[in-house]
């Protein structure tokens, strides 16, 4: 019963995340000029976005999705909850199709079907056998360090990558941070459920890293919206985020113990979902449309009337 409730909350959260991506991408594209000098967002850009209703609506939807996602993690293991977020990928593509009034081709619908089937197959397999254990402080510190190094490497690569790569690299870095944060939400629930004192290092370190990961993840994702399409950002988020969270769940929270046949079936479902995301990323409604080069402003400055 609790597993079903967690999956339902995760599905609603995925809808919120897809809507948040659409609104934030449009706000960044309309209020930040994509020039060679503005490849990276600074405080001036964020101040402009904070005063934009569309961007704030996206933030609100993202916050609601995060709240639902946290409650889902309270009810079920990370390996069950996290993969459901991949549903945001087809939702994002369909929202873009509606906004641009284009009809998605057959390959897009095939990608939607493959993604959904792969994710739900993975969820059904993990829901039967996944269990969670209370994490140790040493494991928390080690996992935090590994993910931090991965994020730094991806950000440095994004800042110097050719034009086609920054979107994917920024979004992947943000996904690593969000995956860490989701796993640590579950870790925090486990620690508190085991009546660990609030002053214990394992509790406050987990809470601090979780909050920092959410903030830095959001910052990196905004750079992804600046660099490219929302489908690529959502695709990178909803594939990398579950992988990172599930790996942390296996290593830190002891959510392993799957039999050989279950592992093979999980790998098959994961491959199907990844294949669906690849199809969506390659054939989404905006894939063939012209995009302004990075050295051309999206919105040229308006000339005042004489």
UniProtKB/TrEMBL annotation:
Membrane-traversing stretches: 75-95, 107-127, 139-157, 169-192, 198-220, 232-252, 258-281
Q: Where is this region: Disordered?
A: 284-306
For this entry, the protein name equals Multidrug DMT transporter permease
Keywords for this protein: Membrane, Signal, Transmembrane, Transmembrane helix
Compositional bias, Basic and acidic residues, is annotated for: 284-293
Keyword Transmembrane appears in the UniProt entry:
yes
Secretion signal, residue range per the UniProt entry: 1-20
């Amino acid at each position: 019963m609790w597993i079903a409730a967690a999956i339902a909350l995760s599905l609603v959260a995925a809808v919120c995340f897809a809507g948040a991506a659409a609104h934030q991408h449009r706000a960044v594209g309309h209020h930040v000029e994509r020039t060679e000098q503005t490849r990276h967002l600074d405080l001036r850009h964020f101040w402009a976005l904070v005063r934009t209703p569309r961007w704030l609506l996206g933030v609100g939807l993202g916050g609601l999705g995060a709240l639902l996602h946290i409650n889902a993690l309270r009810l079920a293991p990370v390996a069950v909850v996290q993969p459901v977020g991949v549903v945001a990928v087809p939702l994002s593509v369909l929202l873009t199709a509606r906004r641009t009034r284009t009809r998605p081709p057959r390959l897009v619908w095939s990608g939607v079907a493959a993604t959904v089937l792969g994710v739900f197959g993975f969820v059904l397999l993990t829901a039967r056998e996944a269990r969670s254990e209370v994490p140790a402080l040493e494991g928390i510190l080690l996992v935090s360090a590994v993910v931090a190094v991965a994020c730094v490497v991806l950000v440095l690569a994004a800042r110097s990558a050719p034009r086609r790569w920054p979107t994917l690299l920024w979004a992947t870095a943000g996904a690593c941070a969000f995956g860490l944060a989701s796993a640590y939400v579950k870790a925090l629930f486990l620690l508190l459920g085991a009546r660990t004192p609030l002053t214990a290092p394992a509790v406050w370190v987990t809470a601090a890293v979780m909050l920092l990961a959410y903030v830095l993840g959001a910052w990196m994702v905004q750079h992804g919206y600046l660099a490219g399409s929302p489908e690529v950002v959502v695709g990178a988020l909803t594939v990398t985020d579950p992988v990172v969270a599930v790996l942390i769940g296996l290593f830190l929270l002891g959510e392993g113990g799957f039999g050989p046949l279950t592992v093979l079936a999980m790998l098959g479902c994961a491959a199907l979902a990844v294949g669906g995301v690849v199809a969506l990323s390659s054939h989404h409604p905006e894939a063939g449309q012209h995009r302004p080069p990075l050295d051309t402003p999206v919105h040229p400055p308006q000339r005042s009337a004489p």
